[in-house]
């Protein structure tokens, strides 16, 4: 008669492997569920953004009474201080260049940085796009955007204010390194100007990115698929072992 008892050492190993497998399975399910939750959050966010960008613009007084200002259309009047423009490194339609952030001085003496739009890499110098440096009182319509309190990722380069090149939107540093008078208060958010053409064609407005990536369904399917594959592998191993013992 064959002894089918499992040695203590093998039994301990199997218990450890079972616990590790169970932990891996639960982790994969948790990751899949988290991505499903993120999918619902992202779809709600995209729906909110779509509703906002198609709404009628409001005044800054109305905007300042809101808790969430992201992508809210606004309309503001004032004049640009072009000497204080800051340049944010970016790409647009496959070209590298800069978004031009220029302080708009409003009637109450406050300023707000306006992302006037994109200029190609070789048109960074304002002297090469003098037509677009509009003077006098004007009205700007665009989307309100929050500034950043810190660099979003270690992978993002540090800003280089000495060369007037910004890799992340630090309003405080933009303000401190511009030639704005020290007594001009600057609001803590930006305005992304709409696509209304500027004289001479530059900057190119309407560069706000609103099509946020939404890959959470794909990620959820991946994690759940790995959990299912793990379950199939374990089940096949158990069947094979039971047949062997029989």
Could you describe the 3D structure shown?
With 246 residues, the chain is an alpha+beta fold. The chain folds into two domains: 23-49 and 214-245; 72-201, no CATH class. It has four helices and six strands; from the N terminus they run ααβββββαβα. It has helices at 8-53, 60-63, 171-177, 216-245, and strands spanning 73-80, 86-92, 95-105, 111-120, 138-146, 186-193. A five-stranded mixed barrel has the order 1-3-4-6-5. Strand 2 (86-92) and strand 3 (95-105) form a beta hairpin. The longest helix is centred in the N-terminal third of the chain and has 46 residues, at 8-53. The protein is elongated and about 90 Å long.
Summarize, please.
The protein is α+β, with helices and mostly antiparallel strands and 246 residues long. It has 4 helices and 6 strands, in the order ααβββββαβα.
Largest sheet: 5 strands, mixed, barrel
Report the count of strand segments: 6
The ordered string of helix (H) and strand (E) elements is HHEEEEEHEH
> Could you give the distance between the termini?
13 Å
Low-confidence stretches: none
Task: Trace the largest sheet across and list its strands.
Answer: 1-3-4-6-5
How many distinct helices? Answer: 4
Instruction: Work out the helicity level.
Output: 25-40%
Mean pLDDT: 90
Shape: elongated
Helices and strands: which structural class?
alpha+beta
Beta-strand content:
15-25%
Radius of gyration: 28 Å
Count up the domains: 2
List the helices and strands and how they pair.
Blueprint (H helix, E strand, L loop, with lengths): L7 H46 L6 H4 L9 E8 L5 E7 L2 E11 L5 E10 L17 E9 L24 H7 L8 E8 L22 H30 L1
Parallel strand pairs: 4-6
Antiparallel strand pairs: 1-3, 1-5, 2-3, 3-4, 5-6
């Amino acid at each position: 008669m064959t002894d089918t008892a499992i040695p203590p050492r093998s039994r301990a190993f199997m218990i450890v492997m079972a616990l590790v497998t169970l932990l891996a399975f639960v982790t994969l399910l948790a990751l899949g569920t988290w991505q499903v939750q993120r999918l619902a959050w992202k779809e709600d966010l995209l729906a909110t953004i779509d509703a906002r960008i198609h709404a009628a613009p409001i005044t800054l007084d109305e905007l300042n009474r809101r808790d969430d200002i992201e992508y809210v259309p606004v309309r503001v009047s004032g004049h640009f201080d072009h000497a204080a423009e800051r340049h944010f490194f970016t790409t647009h339609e496959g070209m590298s260049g800069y978004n031009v952030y220029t302080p708009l001085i409003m009637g109450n003496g406050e300023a707000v940085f306006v992302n006037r739009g994109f200029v190609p890499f070789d048109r960074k110098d304002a002297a090469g796009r003098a037509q677009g440096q509009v003077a006098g009182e004007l009205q700007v319509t665009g989307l309100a955007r929050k500034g950043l309190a810190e660099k979003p990722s270690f992978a993002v380069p540090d800003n280089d204010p000495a060369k007037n090149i910004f890799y992340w939107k630090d309003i405080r540093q933009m303000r401190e390194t511009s030639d704005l008078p020290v007594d001009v208060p600057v609001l803590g958010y930006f305005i992304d100007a709409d696509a209304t053409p500027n004289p001479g064609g530059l900057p190119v407005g309407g560069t706000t990115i609103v099509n946020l990536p939404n890959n959470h369904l794909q990620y959820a399917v991946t994690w759940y698929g790995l959990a299912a594959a793990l379950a199939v592998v374990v089940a096949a191993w158990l069947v094979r072992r039971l047949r062997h013992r029989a």
